[in-house]
Structures are given as C-alpha cells and as structure tokens.
Specification:
The protein has 406 residues and is an alpha/beta fold. It folds into 2 domains: 5-70 and 152-403, L-arginine/glycine Amidinotransferase, Chain A (5-stranded Propeller), CATH 3.75.10; 71-147, Pentein, CATH 1.10.3930.10. The protein contains 14 helices and 20 strands. Strands 9-10-11-14-15 form a 5-stranded mixed beta sheet. The chain has a 4-stranded mixed beta sheet with strand order 1-20-2-3. Strand 12 (275-279) and strand 13 form a beta hairpin. Helix 3 (68-76) crosses helix 7 (112-121), helix 3 (68-76) crosses helix 10 and helix 4 runs antiparallel to helix 10 (175-190). It is globular. 47% of the residues are buried. The active site is at 396 (amidino-cysteine intermediate). One of its GO terms (biological process) is L-arginine deiminase pathway. Belongs to the arginine deiminase family. It is found in: Cytoplasm. Its EC number is 3.5.3.6.
C-alpha cells in the first residue's frame, strides 16, 4: 500500500493524526467558549486523560498515532516552513506591519515545541515583552488575545481529509477555525513525513480567500471503490463540494460523489455526527436526519470537464450501487426518542472504525453501543465525559493518514 492512501472508512486503519489539547482548553472560559465554537468549558486535565486513553486504544489495535503538536514541531525545524507559518499566523494585516515584524522576531526565538504550542494554544498581550508590546498603536488588556487559541484542532478530521491518493486541506467555514488550515498546509508542504509523499492536493492549498467554497472533513466519507459520500451541512457548501468533486474526477481518484442534504444546525454539524460506516454493508445513523427520504444526488464527470448531477432514488440505493451491495443495513441510535436524541448529541453515531466491524466510541452511549453489539459490531469503549462536551466523537478527533481499501 502507498504511504499516503486512505481507501475507505472501514479498511484496516494504519496511521492516524490526533491532537491532544492543553493550552487551548485552558483558555476556554464561559465568556469566550461560544465564539470559539464550544458549548461549555472542559476540565483540561480530565480531557487530556481521556484523549490519552483514545490514543492508547488505537495503538493497542496496531495503529500508528501521530500527534499534531509533534508534527508541527518537526515542521518548524524547516526554516522555510517556520518563516511561512510566522508570516501567515501573525499577519501584518491583522496587527500592523511594524508590530507584527517585531512579534514574529520574538516568537522565532522560542523553542520549536513551545512555538508549536502557541500556534494552537494562542498568545495573549500579557505574555509578550513590554518592548515588543510598545510597538502596537492599540491598547489591550493583558488577557486579550493577539493570536486566538484553536481548541477545535482537537477535531483533526475537519481541517484536512485524505481521500484515496490525496488530501483536501479544507477552507473552514467559521473564522474561529480558519487558522487551523495554515498549520496543516505547512505540515503537508514541509514536514519530512510528507515532503516527498507523492500525493495529490485536491483543494485548499492556495493562499486565497475561498469565500463561500467551504468544506470540512467531518462531511466527507470515503466509501471506497471509487466513491466519496459528502454531506451538505452547516459547514460544507455546494461550492466547496463542487470544487472537491471536480478535482477528484480530474485526478481520476473517484468515479462518483454522492451528495446528501443535511439540516443546517449545530446538532447535525457534520455528516459524521449522524452517519458513519462501520462494516462493509452496515452504517450507523441517526434516523431523524438520515432516513429513506433524505435528498441526495450522484455527481459524475460529464464529457466536458464538468459535473453531471442526477438525483438518486434513495441514499440506500446510491450506496448499494456504489459498493456493489445487494442491501445496506442502517443501525439506528439506541433507546427511546429521548435517549436517542441525547446519545446522538453525545456522538453515539460518530464512531471510528479501526477495521471492518470494530469501532471506537464513547462508553457513555450505552443504548447505541448495545445495538452495535447485538448487530455483531465490536465497540472498543473510551471515556468521553469531558471530550464529548466538545461535541465530537472518535471519528471527529481522528484524521486517518493511511487506511486499506475494501
């Protein structure tokens, strides 16, 4: 298998990128958590411990775990990468060229691990020397941010997603997450692990304003066998989907893209919060959203370099045709209507397959986990009392880098 290849959602998972949050979570407060896209403040120590269990569970299944801070530290060892990251994350246009220049100079003296922590954890006015601060024409409180923290880096799935022989480096919909993309651009351009990888970059690697063409990896499911399933959600637009689909077809990496319409609200933020692939013919779904009448289309290349769109009979038929299956099974969220809604909110459907029929999910979702077990799906349970309050499960918190086809 090629070094950078993700051929499905359920084939043997071989390598994955996670982010163990710390500084960014320390800076979540009741007054700023909403603007940073969190519903609540998390216990930093407990969240870290739960994340360690997640990483340990993956390693016990033979999966290589790479941590974002380690990758970012290694990337900063490359002088061109360090200069580009400082220029993009500490922008002249954001804080003024004189102050930005001095601030970049001060940050450049930090150890690369500490700088990597700052690039995800943020920087306050109170943390910089008086002589640097004096170059700013604005007055700020010590606890005001120069660089906002990026607590959503926890959800490595969204910022970039690997699809067959390439990666999409995603233009994020919300301002609170847009700087995440620069960290991933730098890693994939300059880190020794990726620099000679021979992979395709489908989308998102240009220094431009992508405007309405936003895309997030939680909406992208690599079904396998040349098909990709993409949700049109609160965060992924038809424009973003069109650019990615066209690139997949141009590079001959996919034969078809299935697009599914989702409600545009937070409880259904991404497709993977209501649907994940867990066995060849089996999907976990939240039935209030993913049901037989959900609107979906199949996109294929036309003869002129464009896209042909055909409304599908149903999502079940579209998936069955793509994977050459006689039938497709949906395991719905467990419990009664109240329990199912609670467990979907706590990411019962957002599970990560490590191989066919074996998934990692939060232990708290007892009703849904019992349904998985009865259907012959093995659940490797992890604690999520704190991590789950970030509104993301095992799939959200993982970016597969290498995974077998089906």
């Amino acid at each position: 298998m090629e070094k950078h290849y993700v051929g499905s959602e359920i084939g043997q998972l071989r390598s994955v990128m996670l982010h163990r949050p710390h500084l960014s979570l320390q800076r979540l407060t009741p007054s700023n958590c909403q603007s940073l896209l969190f519903d609540d403040v998390l216990s930093v120590e407990r969240a870290g411990q739960e994340h360690d269990v997640f990483a340990t569970t993956l390693r016990a299944q033979g999966v290589e775990v790479l941590l974002l801070t380690d990758l970012l530290t290694g990337t900063l060892d490359v002088p061109d990468a360090k200069a580009w990251l400082l220029k993009s994350q500490v922008s002249d246009y954001h804080i003024g060229p004189a102050f930005a220049g001095e601030l970049r100079g001060w940050l450049a003296e930090m150890s690369h691990r500490e700088l990597a922590r700052r690039l995800s954890g943020g920087l306050t006015w109170g943390e910089i020397p008086a002589e640097v601060k004096g170059l700013s024409v604005e007055n700020h409180g010590d606890n005001d941010f120069i660089m906002e923290p990026l607590p959503n880096h926890l959800f490595t799935r969204d910022t970039s997603c690997w699809i067959y022989n390439g990666v999409s480096i995603n233009p994020m919909a919300k301002q609170a997450r847009q700087r995440e993309t620069n960290n991933l651009r730098a890693i994939y351009r300059w880190h020794p692990r990726f620099i000679d990888g021979g992979f395709i970059t489908y989308f998102g690697d240009e220094d431009i304003n992508y405007q309405q063409a936003t895309l997030e990896g939680g909406d992208v499911l690599v079904l396998g066998r040349g098909t990709v399933l993409i949700g049109l959600s609160e965060r992924t637009t038809p424009q973003g989907l069109e650019f990615l689909a066209a690139s997949l077809f141009h590079h001959h990496q996919a034969k078809k893209v299935i697009a599914v319409e989702l409600p545009k609200h937070r409880a259904c933020m991404h497709l993977d919060t209501v649907m994940t692939h867990i066995h060849l013919d089996t999907f976990s779904v939240y039935p209030d959203v993913v049901h037989p009448d959900v609107t979906c289309w199949t996109l294929t290349p036309d003869a002129h370099g464009g896209l042909k769109r055909t409304e599908a009979r149903s999502l079940t038929h579209a998936i069955g045709d793509a994977l050459d299956l006689g039938s497709v099974q949906f395991i719905t969220t467990g419990g009664d209507a109240f329990e199912a809604e609670r467990e979907q909110w706590n990411d019962a459907n957002n599970v990560l397959a490590v191989r066919p029929g074996v998934v990692i999910g939060y232990e708290r979702n007892t009703w849904t986990n019992e349904k998985y077990d009865k259907a012959g799906i093995t659940v490797l349970p992890i604690p999520g009392d704190e991590l789950g309050r970030g509104r993301g499960g095992a799939r959200c918190m993982s970016c597969p880098l290498e995974r077998d086809a089906i």
